[in-house]
Design brief:
Layout lengths: L1 H54 L5 H43 L22 E9 L7 E10 L4 E5 L6 H8 L7 E6 L2 E2 L5 H6 L1 E4 L10 H6 L4 H6 L2 H10 L3 H5 L18 H14 L4 E5 L7 H17 L5 E4 L11 E6 L2 E6 L1 H5 L4 E2 L5 E3 L1 H10 L2 H37 L1 H12 L3 H16 L3
Parallel strand pairs: 3-8, 3-9, 6-7, 7-8
Antiparallel strand pairs: 1-2, 1-4, 4-5, 9-10, 11-12
Length: about 450
């Protein structure tokens, strides 16, 4: 599009140039020329009157010169005022908004004179109770609609669902970037707005979709956000340990300056996966109470994802005092979570473990929208139906095996001592437990049972 854009720019530039030329012509003819004529006329008038008064000996030559200079200076003052008048009208609107912003009090961030907030250590229990949220710029488009869930200390809770269902918004409310429109957000049973926002954020580690790096060294990017005393006491061994857990140490060692390598503006010198691993190392080194992982491994390849996911699991296990909330579109990263919440249109539609949610049958309404089995549909879309079908087949085989064992026990009790002496039922029982893994095996065992029943007769 370079050629078309250059042509469009040239056309727009020519149009603006034409407008500006005509505007300047009108401005000079209507305003500047009369003003210049007025200035020249005023000076000539002052000179004429001054000469007349000097000739009549009413004033001296020095007084006449002073009057002429004063008239000239007054004209320049009038010109400057006329040029400033349009600027005065331009600033009336913006200065009102600036004054309103200066005089307003923030609803989240602390300000001078604000009542002190809670700074007690966090346990890490998060609870949403019928939370609604709408962005102020889009009041007609609700994002969260009655969202309710509980994340207990030591739990790993995962959000999944289609794009735009409110997963990241819920994470941002926990970070206190926004305040819910209605409902309650509780931390350790207390409303979240009763906690000091800086104290709350010091207890949270976040790995977001968009990794934020600064134009400084790798070392400073990893330790960024730690209190100064903690940064000064941090050893190279601790830093290396965090980098190794995040699968970042190898590529850091590949740089000539290693930890002192500059990342560039917004980390432009690093790849997406490298930036994300540095963000994970930054989260690990904070030793957080609450972990918020928003697509933490989305920029990694499959091999690196397994290593980093193991590192995140280790970090989460070490912070058992708090909870972990994960968001993932790649469902393989959340299958081991204690609870998975499937969201749709701003609220939770399904909740349970990976196995429990795969057991839910997929149901759709007349328009083709999924009303049940949202998680299972997402899983089958990503991984195919093989896992679900295999699980269903295993469940059917297990049911057949249980029925066969019950039948064997019943027949064994009927055969009595004679069947026990022959040992046929014992042999059959061991054979059945090892070979009945399919419906064909079930048919064979049924025929064997008939033979056993007929033998004593």
């Amino acid at each position: 599009m370079e050629g078309e854009e250059a042509e469009l720019y040239a056309v727009n530039s020519a149009y603006r140039t034409d407008i500006e030329e005509k505007t300047h012509l009108v401005h000079h003819c209507v305003f500047i020329a009369p003003l210049v004529l007025m200035f020249v006329g005023t000076r000539l008038l002052a000179t004429y009157l001054g000469g007349t008064f000097v000739a009549e000996r009413l004033i001296t030559v020095g007084m006449a010169v002073q009057i002429g200079n004063a008239a000239d200076h007054l004209q320049h003052c009038m010109r400057d005022v006329s040029e400033l008048i349009p600027d005065f009208f331009k600033v009336f609107g913006p200065i009102g908004r600036v004054c309103e912003a200066i005089n307003s009090k923030p609803t989240i961030e602390p300000y001078p004179g604000m009542a002190p907030k809670l700074t007690t250590p966090l346990v890490g229990k998060i609870e949403f109770v019928n939370v609604d949220f709408t962005f102020p710029s889009e009041p007609q488009k609700p994002i969260l609609r009655g969202l309710s869930f509980v994340a207990k200390p030591g739990e790993k809770v995962a959000f999944c669902g289609p794009t735009g269902c409110g997963k990241s918004t819920a994470i941002q409310i926990i970070q206190r970037f926004y305040t819910q429109s209605s409902g309650d957000v509780l931390i350790d049973g207390m409303p979240i707005d009763q906690f000091d926002v800086h104290h709350l954020r010091r207890s949270i580690s976040v790995v977001a979709q968009d990794t934020v790096l600064f134009s400084t060294t790798v070392r400073e990017n990893i330790t960024y956000g730690l209190p100064r005393a903690r940064r000064d006491a941090l050893t190279d061994a601790e830093l290396e340990d965090a980098c190794r857990k995040a699968n970042a140490w190898d590529f850091i060692q590949g740089f000539p300056a290693k930890l002192e390598t500059f990342c560039g503006e917004r980390g432009v010198k690093l790849s997406g996966g490298q930036k994300q691993r540095l963000a994970i190392a930054r989260a690990i080194i904070r030793k957080p109470t609450i972990c918020l992982l928003d697509e933490a491994t989305s920029a990694l390849d499959s091999k690196a994802e397994g290593v980093v996911q193991a590192a995140l699991d280790t970090m989460i296990d070490r912070t058992s005092a708090g909870c972990t909330i994960m968001i993932a579109h790649r469902l393989s990263t959340v299958r081991n979570c204690d609870r998975i919440l499937a969201m749709d249109q701003g609220h939770v539609v399904e909740s349970g473990t990976h196995e429990e949610l795969l057991d839910v049958e997929i149901e759709k309404d007349g328009s083709g929208k999924t009303v049940r089995g949202v998680y299972r549909e997402l899983w089958e879309t990503q991984h195919g139906k093989g896992d679900a079908e295999a699980k269903e087949k295993d469940r059917a085989h297990a049911s057949e095996l249980t029925a066969l064992k019950e039948e064997i026990e019943r027949l064994t009790s009927m055969l009595g001592s004679k069947a026990q002496r022959s040992g046929s039922c014992i042999s059959l029982s061991s054979t059945t437990s090892s070979s009945c893994g399919s419906s064909e095996a079930a048919d064979e065992q049924a025929e064997a049972l008939e033979d056993v029943v007929a033998a004593p007769a």
